[in-house]
Design brief:
- By secondary structure, the chain is an alpha+beta fold.
- It has 15 helices and 18 strands.
- The longest helix has 24 residues.
- It is globular, with a radius of gyration of 22 Å.
């Protein structure tokens, strides 16, 4: 009986498009297919300025707990823990109330995390909660753990009730008049969200999709996907914007000529402190003294690209992160297969080298933008949505609809082959398909009173 329930759950997660709601968007049905000892809910939300997980927990803690229990059932896990920063007091209170009112006997623990970055990195979170160390280059299931973030678990709970993923919790913050968090249809553009946040405070601005540490620059036509955590609006001349616009060739020249080999990038690296062989300082030295050959003695393939080395550690303003990323790309083109690596033991000074988020926010020049972003209960109704066909790890979905066709919210509009890694794409609004391109399905939303 349990086996049948497990298989049905896995099928529903795939059918209704549940993927990791942050990061790369790994299909959740694959994680649910694992055999695990421990399931962890990642409620760290350690990227500065983003508020989506906290706001979702305040309103839907019971549903998140329900999703966590569903993952326990699917994976056979005997333990479940929610890793959350103690400072998120409202979210913690909502979780405690939900757990206290839960009639089922399954025990779910709360583990209170310190306010440091990157507490939400899976390797860091698993160690903080369980004491276990994921092997270098490995994933949580190798130590018997499955990790899902808060919104993913909310979507798991929705999927087992027959509801597809067609909305996303998004924070719009930074240099806007009214920072907020809201649930929006997938495919909604930034242009539709900015007015809801009162518009930009500055005339010349730029947009980061995601957090200030790992997010990427986008234009105002960018759309919400299943992994979008937020949009941060900043003045176009803010250091976080200008640094992202620097060409990698300049970064490499500066690294060769300016690195003072202090090794701070390594001494504060979250993976190095866990005992992994990642040594950004050795990669910088190799780059400086190489004569043209590709030198990567510091295991750049182990870099999570959290950005701590460039944003906080380096006194010269260099970017070991970008150097690591460049080395990884070069090695991948040459067919290099990352070997993983040996563990060297957790650093004895690790607890003293965790970077407080408040200090990071100050270093990033974001103190004035570190404001609440309360949830907006108003329903967002965009004029059109642009549904990207690749919003997850795996193969892109293939459109099943054509221009002019009417679709209903929740209808499958693109599918992946049965034997391929990926999930279908569902219409996030009711309306008519106006365009099918190589990478998206565009739907013009149906207005009240519209009809055939």
């Amino acid at each position: 009986m349990i086996g049948l329930i497990r298989e049905e759950t896995i099928s529903l997660l795939r059918q209704f498009g549940v993927v990791g709601a942050g990061g790369a968007g790994f299909p959740t049905y694959v994680k649910a297919s694992s055999q695990a000892e421990w399931v962890i809910a990642n409620a760290a939300e350690c990227e500065p300025l983003l508020r989506g997980n906290q706001e979702l927990l305040r309103r839907a803690a019971q549903e998140v707990v329900g999703g966590l229990k569903t993952m326990m059932l699917a994976t056979g896990a005997a333990r479940a823990t929610i890793g959350i920063k103690a400072k998120y007091k409202a979210a913690v209170a909502a979780l405690q109330e939900a757990l206290a009112e839960d009639p089922e006997p399954v025990v779910v623990d709360l583990h209170f995390l310190g306010d440091f970055y990157p507490a939400g990195d899976e390797h860091v979170l698993v160690h903080e909660v369980t004491g276990r160390i994921i092997p270098p280059g490995g994933i949580p299931i190798q130590v018997g753990v499955v990790v899902n973030n808060v919104e993913t678990l909310f979507n798991v709970n929705q999927a087992v009730k027959g509801r597809p993923v067609i909305e996303k919790v998004v924070t719009v913050t930074g240099a806007v008049h009214r920072p907020l968090t809201l649930r929006v249809p997938l495919g909604t553009s930034v242009n539709d969200l900015l007015p809801l946040a009162g518009g930009p405070e500055v005339e010349n601005f730029a947009i980061i999709e995601g957090g200030p540490m790992m997010g990427r620059l986008v234009d105002s036509g960018a759309v919400v996907t299943r992994t979008t955590g937020g949009f941060i609006i900043l003045p176009a001349d803010h250091p976080l914007i200008t640094s992202r616009r620097v060409d990698i060739t300049l970064d490499l020249r500066r690294a060769r000529g300016m690195c003072c080999h202090c090794s701070y990038c390594t001494e504060l690296c979250s993976r190095y402190l866990l005992g992994h062989g990642l040594r950004p300082d050795r990669n910088m030295v190799g780059l400086a003294y190489s004569t043209g050959e590709l030198v990567a003695r510091g295991a750049p393939w182990l870099c999570s690209e959290c950005g701590l080395c460039e944003a906080f550690a380096c006194p010269m303003g260099l970017s070991p992160r970008r150097v690591n990323a460049w080395l990884k790309q070069k090695m991948a083109r040459r067919g290099f297969k990352p070997p993983g690596g040996e563990l060297h033991g957790v650093h004895s000074h690790r607890s003293y080298r965790l970077v407080p988020v408040a200090r990071l926010v100050a270093r990033l020049g974001l103190i004035r933008y570190d404001r609440p972003a309360p949830f907006l209960d108003e329903r967002v109704q965009p004029r059109q949505v642009r549904l990207l066909l690749k919003q997850h790890v795996g193969v892109p979905a293939v459109p099943l609809v054509g221009p002019g066709e009417r679709v209903a919210a929740g209808q499958v509009v693109a599918e992946v082959p049965e034997d391929a890694l990926g999930v279908p794409i569902h219409a996030s609004v009711s309306g008519r398909v106006t365009q099918i391109s190589a990478d998206a399905v565009v739907i013009e939303a149906e207005r009240v009173g519209d009809g055939d």
